[in-house]
Amino acid sequence: MSIYPVCKRLLSYLIGLMICFSIISPANAVLQEGDEVPNYVRADITGFDFHGQDLSKSSIAGAVARDADFSDVDLHGTVLTLSDLKGSNLMGIDLTDTLADRVNFQKTDLRNAVLTNMIASGSSFAGARIEGADFTFAVLDSDDQKNLCQIAEGTNPKTGVSTRESLECSDQAAGGYKPPMPSS
Asked: Which residues pair with 119 in a beta bridge?
């Protein structure tokens, strides 16, 4: 197994942390006049309808966004750290290059979502629907990856990548899980 994918994931994680610390500051917590992208840092946006909007490169860190509609939203390059998205509609969302560590994705609809290069360590996907989601090079906790492989099916209509392939699932009898790094 090549060390390249592991190094790429680690580098993505470190870059994401640097972005997070440079974006999340009191000065950026509220949308100011002249700002080009909306920021919802620590905001309560429960039930909001963002369907189809371009929120790329914004920040939703620490927000409560339960039961919100983010379907077909472009959120690539955003910071979602510590957000609560439980029960939200994320169908067809673009979360490419997103820092989404410690996010509550429980019971979300992630069907046909693009989550490539997303850093989602410490996040929870319990009860999420992931048919057709593309997790290529996403950084997930091993337990999340194992659990998502149990329900992975479909192919993403935008990227053409199967959900099982993007999660690096194995069809072997060993629980259907391929570890991200070789054992010592």
From this structure: 99, 139
Six token digits for residue 164? 């099982």
Nearest-angstrom CA–CA distance, 130 and 118: 15
Check if the beta carbon of residue 46 is closer than 8 Å to that of residue 66. Answer: yes
Question: How much is the pLDDT for 168?
Answer: 96
Instruction: Please give the single-letter amino acid code of residue 68.
Output: A
How far is Cα 184 from Cα 70, in angstroms, rounded to an integer? 42
3-state helix, strand, coil in the chain (%, to 5): 20, 10, 65
Neighbours of 102 (CB within 10 A): 14
Note whether 104 and 83 are within 8 A (CB): yes
The pLDDT of 127-132, averaged and rounded, is: 98
Query: CA 2, 179, 89, 58 torsion: positive or negative?
Result: negative
Torsion angles phi and psi, residue 136, rounded to 5: -55, 125
Give dist(CA 4, CA 15) in Å, integer: 16
Token couple for 114: 């693009």
Out of 128-132, 137-141, 154-158, 177-181, pick the least confident: 177-181
